[in-house]
Amino acid sequence: MSDLFPPGFDFAGLVYLLMALLLASGAGWGFWRFRTDGRRAILGLAIWAFVIVAIMAAYIALN
């Protein structure tokens, strides 16, 4: 990974920022969906959880 990023690059901070963005946007979207279509909102929550776990796994694998 050191070839792709400059020395001192805060990769962990970037990953945390991306996860926070996914959490905030997913939560806003999910609360709106629960009011209109609860069953499909559950599927959306599962997809967001999978995306966050995939980002964490990629971080662990690349770190």
User: Biggest β-sheet, characterized?
Assistant: none
Radius of gyration: 15 Å
- The coarse overall form would be elongated
How many strand segments?
0
Strand content: under 5%
Mean pLDDT: 79
Q: Helical region count?
A: 2
Label the structural class: mainly alpha
Query: Could you give the order of the helices and strands?
Result: HH
Poorly predicted ranges: none
Helix fraction, binned, reads: over 70%
Distance between the termini: 8 Å
Keywords:
mainly alpha; 63 residues
Protein architecture, described:
- This protein has 63 residues and is mostly helical.
- The protein is built from two helices and no strands.
- The protein has helices spanning 11-36, 38-62.
- Helix 1 packs antiparallel against helix 2 (38-62).
- The longest helix has 26 residues, at 11-36.
- The model has no long low-confidence stretch (mean pLDDT 79).
Summarize the topology.
Layout: H1 11-36, H2 38-62
Helix pairs in contact: 1-2
Concise synopsis of the structure shown:
By secondary structure, this protein is mostly helical. It has two helices and no strands.
